[in-house]
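User: Hand in any protein.

Assistant:
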Amino acid sequence: MLDYRDLAEVLIHAEKKIQAVSCITDKNPEFNLSMGYKVQNELVTIKRELGHKVIAYKMGLTSPAKMKQMNIHEPIYGYIFDYMNVQNNHIIIEDFIRPKVEAEIAFILGEDIEGPGITGEQVLAKTKWIQPVLEIIDSRYENFKFKLPDVVADNTSASKVVFGNKYFDPLDFEVDSIKVSMIINGELRASGVSSAVLGSPANSAAMLANMLYTDGQRKIEKGSVILTGGITEAVMLKKGDHVITQYESMDTVSLEVR
């Protein structure tokens, strides 16, 4: 029988030592999505025991193309911890295994939201602010290759986040049509429109609430932050990269890789 806590500790150790490990499914072909979330729950528990605090929820695999590729009908979710919050807009490449960056929009709730059956429109009405954010993902598995249960166990590859400096009223925007451009070292490397996220980032936040309800977890409380998923593809980072991400009519978020 698999020990979920032991598996979580292996992944935490891999993150701490910046050393990739083999996928859980390599040696345990029976390891499924439900088991992946059980490992993730243990991982969250251990990190809290170590004194870390959850500062945001995050959604992953939110594009129809990615869901089709992974043969799933809904995205996956994980958690962002306090130590993942990047200060001064720079990271050190040696702190990562194979980092990638993607552009997202965070929702900051003005009211509680709860499934089942909550819609994107209802979430939008309960959202106080939206905020541009860059997420740096870094799989703890070798060569950034894994199956769905593996990445869920690995907290959806969560690594670091760079929050924009400004908050915006969601009612001032068509949140499903925000254009984003990611420029790295002066070259356009990725672009997208927020509708790539389940038709609207608000739908992603709603789906999170409904998934948490199905998984027996409580409501998402007022003040919570939700990273709704990548608007752009995830771009590999290397030392010396200077990332400037432009959100149309909103803000610019930058990142320097040292």
User: Anything to note?
Assistant: The chain has one domain: 4-88+103-170+195-230. The helical segments are 4-17, 24-27, 33-49, 64-69, 120-125, 148-153, 201-214. Residues 33-49 form the longest helix (17 residues).
